[in-house]
Automatic annotation (TrEMBL):
Pfam families: VWA
Domain VWFA: 160-349
Source organism: Paenibacillus mendelii
PROSITE patterns (UniProt xref): PROKAR_LIPOPROTEIN (PS51257), VWFA (PS50234)
Residues passing through the membrane, by range: none
Positions with biased composition (Polar residues): 28-50, 58-74
Region (Disordered) residue spans: 25-74
Protein name per Swiss-Prot or TrEMBL: VWA domain-containing protein
Length: 469
């Protein structure tokens, strides 16, 4: 009986041992059903625990991981200083209120945390001053456009110069062996050579048709013709057109003045007329009234009369025309006097350059100094604010040290406060200095260019006058 029980027990152990080995025997068979060529597949299967060992690192690098902090971005000086001011900045500062706020801070803060809290309370508002520096325009612009190498007038001035030449029969008369017409032509040519290049110039003749006979009066009195119209740089063409002008008929001054209106560009800002005549109106017109209308027109026109060898009665009448036209009457009795008068008139035009130079140079200086003043004020005000902020921070530091004792990170915080002061103060100084120097450089260049160009043109025109006048 005992032997039977032992036999049964031993048989049971053998059976159980055989069952424990069965998975190892069946595993290869399972693999073979999927890939008959992978006889070693079980040994190549990756352990799940091995496959998971790198996942924590992957998760740390993922931007979607809420536990990961973004890389620190370095702020520019301007971005640091453009942060909003603290609660007690500027006029809001009150020592008792500041101390009450400091009492609310935890005594366990680090130096960096203390600095952050102090700035939330006491940082001053530098934004207006930094904005001024960032947007500051250092270029100096003067309204007077710089002239070109040749004579021009400031672009804001659109000058029209009209020359009306009397071609009536009386201009045949001679003075000192030269006809009045030839003398007038020479004077006009000399005058035209000196015109500003961007001035609009027109030359009109009148009384150049018909004869002095009554039968030709109607034709002659209607005769007025613009024989040249162009820029001052084109006045070399005047010599050619004048060659065909011969003294002929009557003297229609009023008709010639009335025709000037159609010669003037509507964009003209200044218009001057020079009437060269050796006599009074002989066609029944009213030159006094026409001159007045020109002077009161939208484009105000000044009418000057040059009486060339005119008798006393004629001078009296022509003077009335000039007065009505807002200009002047000048009587000349020979070709030299005529040239001198036109040279005098030319000197007035040359004076445009002197005025341009003086006005432009003065404006350049004023703008430079104004900009420099703005820079200085911005710099000084900002530095004053830096000093104020630093004093308030140091007062807060002293209060916290007294309150918290040795546990307080005074040394580190003092270093941070000092560094902030030096940073902000130096930014204001260096930026202000850089902008100031740029403004000085630009302003001086504009000033020097205007002075040099103005002097050059005045000297060249003086030489031109002396050589060709």
């Amino acid at each position: 009986m005992i032997r039977s029980s032992v036999f049964i027990f031993v048989t049971l152990l053998v059976f159980l041992a055989g069952c424990s080995q069965e998975p190892e025997k069946t595993a290869p068979t399972i693999q073979d059903t999927t890939d008959s060529n992978q006889s070693n597949a079980p040994s190549e299967i990756q352990n799940p625990s091995d496959s998971d060992q790198h996942e924590p690192n992957s998760d740390l690098q993922s931007p979607t991981d809420p536990g990961q902090s973004d890389p620190q971005t370095t702020l520019t000086d301007e971005q640091i200083l453009m942060k909003p001011p603290g609660q007690f900045a500027g006029s809001n500062y009150n020592e008792q209120n500041v101390q009450a706020a400091l009492d609310q801070l935890s005594p366990d803060l680090t130096a960096d945390q203390y600095e952050e809290e102090l700035l939330l309370l006491l940082a001053e508002d530098y934004r207006p001053y930094v904005t001024t520096f960032i947007n500051f325009e250092t270029e100096i612009k003067v309204n007077n456009q710089r002239p070109s190498a040749k004579i021009t007038l400031p672009s804001s001035r659109k000058l029209h110069i009209s020359i009306l030449l009397d071609a009536s029969g009386s201009m045949k008369a001679e003075i000192a062996g030269k006809s009045k017409m030839d003398s007038a032509k020479e004077a006009i040519l000399s005058f035209a050579e000196k015109m500003p290049e961007n001035a609009e110039v027109s030359l009109r003749v009148y009384g150049h048709k018909g004869t002095g006979n009554k039968k030709d009066k109607e034709v002659s009195c209607k005769s007025t013709e613009e024989i040249f119209h162009g820029q001052g740089e084109e006045t070399n063409q005047i010599k050619t057109v004048l060659q065909g002008v011969k003294p002929a008929g009557w003297t229609p001054i009023a008709n010639a003045l009335k025709s000037v209106k159609q010669d003037i560009n509507p964009e003209t800002t200044n218009s001057i007329v020079y009437v060269v005549s050796d006599g009074i109106e002989t066609c029944g017109g009213n030159p006094v009234q026409i001159a007045k209308e020109l002077n009161q027109a939208k484009v105000k026109t000044v009418v000057n009369i040059i009486g060339f060898d005119v008798d006393h009665e004629g001078q009296k009448l022509l003077r009335q025309v000039a007065t009505s036209g807002g200009g002047e009457f000048i009587s000349v009795d020979n070709d030299e006097a005529l040239k001198k008068y036109l040279d005098k008139t030319y000197d007035k035009l040359r004076g445009e350059w002197t005025l341009w130079k003086e006005k432009g140079a003065g404006e350049a200086n004023i703008k430079k100094e104004t900009k420099q003043g703005t820079i200085n004020k911005t710099q000084e005000t900002m530095q004053g604010l830096v000093n104020k902020e630093n004093a308030n921070l140091l007062a807060a530091l002293t209060y916290l040290e007294t309150k918290n004792g040795k546990a307080f990170p005074r040394s580190e915080l003092l270093t941070s406060i000092t560094e902030r002061k030096n940073f902000a103060w130096t930014y204001a100084r260096d930026t202000g200095k850089r902008l100031y120097e740029e403004v000085s450089k630009n302003g001086n260049k504009v000033y020097d260019d205007i002075i040099d160009e103005g002097n050059k043109q005045v000297n060249e025109l003086t030489s031109k006058k002396n050589n060709k006048g």
